[in-house]
Amino acid sequence: MMSSKMIIVGMADLNVCKSPGVLTTLGLGSCIGIAFHDNVHKIAGLAHIMLPDSKQIQNNSNVAKFADTAIVKMLQDMGRMGAQRQNIRAKIAGGAQMFAFTSTSPSMRIGDRNIEACVNILNMLRIPILANETGKTYGRTVELYADTGDFIIKTIGHGTFTV
């Protein structure tokens, strides 16, 4: 097995790498970890998205923070590394409802809104979603392996699994 370089993707951040790199992001609650993989060229991208839509926020200069801008930027970054759009597949995790709210206000349902935004954008861009481990009430940490496209999801109390 090749040694892998672990690259940490922070909150409201994104990164791309080639095999044998491994991308990881910690502590996804209502945020979404969106993983892209080009299996032909062994190129991976991971974004830790906090909010669904940059157009609804005034201070929106961090493109990695928002689903609408992070997905486009990650596709561009992977393309510069040699990935081809028709080979890219997505896997998503996160979007949990971490706290119990009595309100049904959309502003309190950020996890659901993040999931919906990611799925809608990926569908619009015709990027197939191979795995979707979202919602529920627990956080997740994820790892994405550039060589295989394996997306390992680690939870507290709900196990670790690969999709």
List keywords for this structure.
163 residues, alpha+beta, 5-stranded mixed sheet, 2 helices
Topology:
Elements: E1 6-8, E2 13-18, E3 22-28, E4 32-38, E5 43-49, H1 67-81, E6 88-94, H2 110-124, E7 129-134, E8 140-145, E9 151-155, E10 160-162
Parallel strand pairs: 1-3, 6-7
Antiparallel strand pairs: 2-5, 3-8, 4-5, 4-6, 8-9, 9-10
Give the structure's gist in a few sentences.
The chain is 18% helix and 35% strand. It has 163 residues and is an alpha+beta fold.
Structural class: alpha+beta
Largest sheet, spatial ordering of strands: 1-3-8-9-10
User: Based on CA inertia axes, which overall geometry fits?
Assistant: globular
Per DSSP E runs of 2 or more residues, the count of β-strands stands at 10
Query: What level of helicity do the residues show?
Result: 10-25%
Distance between the termini: 20 Å
Multimeric organization: single chain
For the sheet with most strands, the description reads: 5 strands, mixed
Query: How do the helices and strands follow one another from N- to C-terminus?
Result: EEEEEHEHEEEE
Give me the Rg, rounded: 15 Å
Proportion of strand residues: 25-35%
Q: Kindly state the mean pLDDT as a whole number?
A: 93
Enumerate how many helices there are, as a single number: 2
pLDDT below 50 for ≥5 consecutive residues: which ranges?
none
Can you characterise this structure?
The chain is an alpha+beta fold and about 160 residues long. It is about 20% helix and about 35% strand. The chain has two helices and ten strands; from the N terminus they run βββββαβαββββ. β9 and β10 (about 160) form a beta hairpin. The longest helix has 15 residues, at about 65-80. The radius of gyration is 15 Å and the shape is globular. The chain starts with 5 loop residues before the first strand and ends with a strand.
